Amino acid sequence: MDQRLEEIVSFYTGYDEAGRLDRRGAFRLERIRTMELLEQFLPPAPASILDVGGGPGAYARPLLGAGYRVRLVDLVPAHVEQARSGQPPIDAVVGDARELPEPDAAHDATLLLGPLYHLQDRDDRVRALREAVRVTRPGGVVVAAAISRFAGPIDFAVTGRLTPAIVEESRQILADGINHPGLGFTHAYFHRVADLITELREAGLTGIVVHGVEGPAWGAADATAGTPAEQSVFDGALQLARICGTEPEIVAASAHLLAIGVRQTSGR
Predict the structure, then answer these.
(1) Would you call the peptide bond into 46 cis, given omega within 30 degrees of 0 as the criterion?
(2) What phi, psi does 106 have (nearest 5°)?
(3) Which of 9, 74, 225, 235 is the most core-located residue (most Cβ within 10 A)?
(4) Does 268 reside within a domain?
(5) How far is CA 130 from the centre of its chain?
(6) What share of the chain in percent tops pLDDT 90?
(7) Phi and psi at residue 210, to the nearest 5°
């Protein structure tokens, strides 16, 4: 394991990923909208789902509860242990998205709800996507999440943390998408929508659609936290995320992007 991956594993070993999706309005939007999109695009239960980078099981566990057969692969041993020990327990193993411990065409759908965040080299991202395609049956779906190129600057602005130093860091991120440790996150890559689509196509996926997960008002959901307007703004942000999910002009304003593609069927 190279140094960057070791630092990513160390970061998540000491980070409460299991509780993240309940901590902020934007994170709750992420959870709700991601589940809604999974319900929309996954094949019906009891389909087989491979959850790559599934962490402690934030999405694997409700999918299990809905009757799916789920196997989770994650780079972080602590996440795998949490996934196995929770209720219901998840079939989980330690593994790298770029070299999945799964046979060809073994699953009806594959989720990559995290690995693309941390693969800063384009070749590695395409390799992970190709692995997801390999282990998905022909005609099955691959669902890949990415962080929007604009998420960091928006987050710092709405939470009052856009200092001069962070402005300079934001300019660098907008230029190349590379996030360096030191601003409260680990090694990461932030996508532009067009580049995400190109990477999925290169991996062999067709029928690609990209959704803005949290919608354009996710920052307002955080900015109004603790105020009388908190719930009404959250509700409005959620409705706007549903309405604007695939509008090309505004998709990238979401903190996260969710791309859905289909593995080509045999002979096509």
Answers:
(1) yes
(2) -85, -15
(3) 74
(4) no
(5) 17
(6) 83
(7) -115, 125
